[in-house]
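Hello,

Our lab assistant flagged a job as stuck in the queue for most of the afternoon. It eventually completed. Since we weren't sure the result was trustworthy after the delay, we are filing this so someone can double-check. Below is the sequence as submitted and the structure that was eventually returned. Let us know if re-running is recommended.
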Amino acid sequence: MSILVLVRHGESRWNLENRFAGWVDVPLSEKGIVEALDCAKYLKSVEFDVAFTSKLTRAQTTLMLILSCQKKTGIFLHDDGKENEWSLHPMRVDENEMPIYSSEALNERYYGILQGQNKQHAREIYGEDQVFIWRRSFDIAPPNGESLKDTYERTIPYFKENILPALENGKNVIVVAHGNSLRSVVKYIENISDEDIPKFELNTGDPVIYDHKMGKFNKRNR
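-- returned structure --
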């Protein structure tokens, strides 16, 4: 049996300001740091073997704070170029270290024209009903942005190709990412319908834990 833990990053400065962050690389707020440290303490008894995260700072910082309570030292691995060549050491990753992989596939949904806007201000400009449709429908995107369906279609292939094989090999995996990329993963794992997934929410810094055995996921109760 292996364990999969999904964590939405701690509160960011733009969560605090009620703004659409999307791919804007916003750092954690003070509350977000506390949430990540609380999550680290809660997960201390789980010994992770591999970690996955997005390319955005708020997710990577949350992951680093969580891993600060782990026995193994996390090391970011890079795919190509000088980062890959110059970050090598004799063992690449030894038994006391944990590989960390980052990918844009796990980034937050791209919000297009909404990105950077205060959510209430956006409602005043475009109308409350229209903003609600852009935010909560599965397959309708804001202009120049992504829908949840678009996010699902880039996140799930990465999950199948990279994260699922680690679980099938008996590895305990942590994924720290964003509300919409993780909602995509939960939709896939739990087979949530297109109609119901917009109602599903993940709290910042609050882990969702699954046991994985023989190709099946069982969600733990908190």
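-- support follow-up --
The delay was a queue issue, not a problem with the job. The result is valid. The longest strand covers residues 2-8. The mean pLDDT is 94.
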